[in-house]
Amino acid sequence: MASDPKTPDAPKPSNFLRGIIERDLEAGTWSQRRFGGTPGDGAHHRAGAPDPARIRTRFPPEPNGYLHVGHAKSICLNFGLARDYGGVCHLRFDDTNPEKEEQEYVDAIIEAVRWLGFDWDVNGTRHLYWASDYFDFMYRAAEALVGAGLAYVDEQSADEMRANRGDFNTPGTPSPFRGRTPEENLARFREMRDGRHADGAMVLRAKIDMASPNINLRDPTLYRIKHATHHNTGDRWCLYPMYTYAHPIEDALENITHSICTLEFEDQRPFYDWLLDNLATLGLLERPTPRQHEFGRLNLSYVITSKRKLRALVDEKIVEGWDDPRMPTIFGMRRRGYTPESIRAMADGSGASKTNIWLDYSVLDGCLRDDLEGKAARAMAVLDPLKLKLTNWADVFGGAATEPCQAPAHPHRPELGQRQFALGPELWIERDDFSETPPKGFFRLFPGNKVRLKYGVVVECTGCEKDASGAVTAVLAKVLPDTKSGTPGADAVKVKGTITWVGVHDAIAATVNVYDRLFTEAQPDAGGRDFREALNPASKRVVEGWLEPSLAGTERETRLQFERHGYFVADRVLHSAGRPVFNRVTTLKDSWAK
Ligand code: ATP
Ligand code: MG
Questions:
Q1: Domain 384-506, CATH class in plain words
Q2: Does the chain have fewer CB atoms within 10 Å around its N or its C terminus?
Q3: What is the pLDDT of residues 24-47, one digit of tens each?
Q4: Got the DSSP string for 350-406?
Q5: Residue 99 alpha carbon to ligand 1 centre in Å
Q6: What is the pTM of this model?
């Protein structure tokens, strides 16, 4: 189980990233670094004190959507490594793209990372950063590259540039603008900055190697013109850095030591190193510069994590919003009832490797059961109600309207106390706990059979009532005297079945959303298939059920085990004492296992 996210855990399974960090710490690779207290260039850090953080990692989301379970993996990895090795993890909004970011997403990301249990305030310093705060430095670095003959302004059209890039088998063709002098390039670049050119008229490119076998090194674009208002810098800039240029610089300014990203960035690493090495040589950054390490993405079976496809689910109203309990967003998982502990345990348990991994969804449910088994209070709930009438009530209980019963809130945690409820002449039971013509091995209610009403008495079924269509409307049974749980001799009558129930007189009505997987296929979008074709029509079933009275006053987000049914949570948006709404997180056992 994952423990407190802020304190080092018990030993975790080793992985290659831990190996790298441990070797770095042993070799003292990062031990001479100084930190200026805030992000900044080489001079700023040089003037600072020795960096109190032994390593620095970062989680760098683009604020253009809601975080999902894949991001949770990255969050747990980056914050977890920093925690385990005496480091600090920064939360950085990668907001270099002026048109896509929104405050709604910024707020949601902050809330999601906090909810997962992580924090970027360390000893009074708030390590929450914005990539757009580095635009000035990025521009200055670009001018330095131009001055050193390492970057040039290219006026080819986008199509020409693409055609001249070549492919795996063909080297690229140098741009006719590649031979310009640094002075010419600088003048042009400043014109770009000053708004003298239209979007797409020209770009700034690194001057590396048009014949490189790594296409990312064939003079990648560093800056493009975009006359757009940015949420942070307003109209100050009309040229914006490309992600591949911005990201290494963001890492360097923040003194990141281990820049951990997913595998698709592997081919970008040579450029990452080229850029930071040159900026260090030009005196703008301190050495050693950050190092990039790639790990495999986490994929969950029965889940899609592409932001575009998740957005389609929301826009096409296939789900009820970004926090729909069937969504793999952190907000959706939270509303569904998953705990931060269960998500961290899944993420930590999946390690880090050099290949993308597919984790079976049941692993997450298993982590949830492990977490809640010892924590969640128990309660009885009837989700598909059928009335049970105790026909000899007056003979056994005399004039009493009800008979008090109790049960422990948790079977292994007496300190949580007892739940109180009562038997009465009419009870709600589960419809499928009765069978007029029982199949072999059915031990619950059928005429002539005895069962125990859990925490109550033993009853013997005598028959049922039906409506005109022949549907069963009530089950009839008689109470066996002196069988009440907890009283002497209660076990004298042996029964094979025990069923759950709630009293008609004291049950609480509740809406219960019985959720299941959103897709019926393990890889809903495999091979380019339309994920809409793999939707599970039974992913949400709404039932009107009955809960035991001890659940009156249950607060939102309380997680419970409904005995025999699984784990449930009081919905964090819709639940209220007057109108209880519960969501099923998962069943008690994995029902999807083959
Ligand atoms: P998407 O592809 O869903 O749009 P993204 O990677 O573009 O996601 P970012 O906001 O850029 O979204 O991601 C922030 C961080 O989360 C990145 O470092 C990214 O590598 C990481 N990340 C995203 N998805 C996964 C995943 N499935 N497994 C592990 N890390 C992931
Ligand atoms: Mg991205």
A1: mainly beta
A2: C
A3: 999 999 999 999 999 999 999 999
A4: T---SS-EEE-HHHHHHHHHHHHHTTSEEE-EESSEEEEEETTHHHHHTT-S-EEEE
A5: 19
A6: 0.94
